[in-house]
Design brief:
Blueprint (H helix, E strand, L loop, with lengths): L1 E6 L15 H18 L3 E4 L12 H11 L4 E4 L2 E2 L5 H14 L4 E6 L5 H6 L6 H17 L3 E3 L7 E4 L12 E5 L3 H10 L3 E3 L6 H17 L9 E3 L4 E3 L3 H21 L9 H7 L3 E3 L1 H15 L3 E5 L7 H22 L26
Parallel strand pairs: 1-2, 1-13, 2-3, 3-5, 4-5, 5-8, 8-9, 9-10, 10-13, 11-12
Antiparallel strand pairs: 6-7
């Protein structure tokens, strides 16, 4: 099994202390989190894309480009790239450049995105977001695969024998399709033989399991080998400590603050107590053995090879968060890597001479 750290770069007061960092401080902390992830031996680091409060993750290629310059090994993910909002040609240019600069460490997770700002900033609505996502994906894939693209569609000007530059380092980019509830995304992934990344954050396991079942059914219907299915899944809260009581005690004020915020904004309460949250959500909160057993239980339902954990402290102190990441790597990850094989992430082809990743003074290699 492979392990990513993921951040959506939320920019909110600390749920326990109430302290609000500046945008510059918050973004610098994301870069430091990626360096820590590489230092501790995680397989990938993912940056989300959002275009409204409370997020400042509107430019993943810029953030990942900075991370690429101060790391040398870790795979670089988006989580997700909202192709419904982007010109596929411009997205190709950004991510092909990043692919070259990072030494072929890039993987994309794409999705339609959500939120009211999409209509306000980009004039993308629920009526056309799925069509835009599909069309954007298909053109992006053609631009990556070929240096002469002739194409026409609904949402951007046509292309005739177009060559987008720079040409990417990876001849075939792995593109995951991120989905929480959408069968449209699942069908698109299955049709093109791409992997699926299930959000697996907001609800109990059942709806996510049903969506993955649908993906496997569509995969087979499109004539792909079932052995080639590749699935990732998210997790909710994250805190690993020596024993479960210590984890519950440390996480309780964080959960209480989130519950209060949900009630204040009229959001549905899916898990009314911390104990229910730990038991029925995908949150990994407890001792190493408890976390290991929970991941294995989810794997028995999903058959996934990749999971993401939170890259953010989310109300924990920096020391608590680092200790949790270290404990996971030392006592949970080794057993999962042994029991659940995972395919390689990033740099999906052998690099040619001269195509090594950038080496910098800040590299942790």
């Amino acid at each position: 099994m492979k392990f990513l750290l993921l951040t959506l770069i939320t920019h909110t007061p600390d749920p326990v202390t109430g302290v609000l960092e500046s945008p510059a401080q918050r973004l610098r902390r994301v870069v430091e989190s990626a360096r820590l992830a590489e230092e501790l031996g995680y397989d990938g680091f993912a940056v989300g894309e959002r275009h409204e409060d409370p997020f400042i993750s509107s430019a993943p290629p810029v953030v990942l480009g900075h991370i690429a310059a101060v790391t040398s090994r870790i795979a670089l993910f988006t989580g997700v790239t909202t192709l419904s909002l982007l010109d596929p040609v411009r997205a190709f240019e950004d991510y092909s450049t990043l692919d070259n600069l990072s030494g072929g460490r890039l993987e994309l997770i794409i999705g339609k995105g959500n939120g009211a700002a999409q209509a306000q900033l980009f004039h993308v609505t629920t009526d056309d977001q799925w069509d835009r996502n599909r069309e954007g994906y298909e053109l992006f894939r053609q631009l990556w695969d070929s240096d002469s693209v002739t194409w026409s569609g609904r949402f951007r000007p046509s292309l005739t024998a177009a060559k987008a530059l720079p040409r990417p380092l990876q001849p075939r980019l792995r593109i995951w399709h991120g989905s929480a509830t959408s069968r449209e995304s699942v069908d698109l992934a299955a049709r093109y033989g791409d992997p699926l990344f299930s959000a697996n954050v907001t609800h109990p396991i059942e709806p996510y399991g049903e969506l993955i079942d649908h993906y496997r059914e569509r995969w087979a219907a499109y004539g792909h080998d079932p052995a080639d299915v590749l699935i990732g899944a998210g997790t909710a809260g994250f805190l690993v400590t020596a024993d479960s009581q210590r984890a519950l005690e440390a996480y309780r004020p964080i959960f209480a603050a989130r519950l209060e915020a949900a009630r204040k904004h009229g959001l549905p309460i899916v898990f009314p107590t911390l104990e229910d949250y730990v038991e029925r959500s995908s949150a990994l909160i407890g001792s190493p053995q408890q976390v290991l057993e929970k991941i294995e239980r989810y794997h028995a339902r999903f058959g996934h090879e990749v999971i993401h954990l939170s890259a953010d402290s989310d109300g924990l102190t920096p020391g608590q968060h680092r200790a949790s990441l270290e404990l996971f790597q030392s006592e949970v990850a080794p057993a999962l890597r042994q029991r659940i094989p995972g395919r390689a992430l990033g740099a999906q082809r052998p690099l040619a001479a001269g195509d090594r990743p950038l080496a910098t003074e800040g590299s942790t290699r």
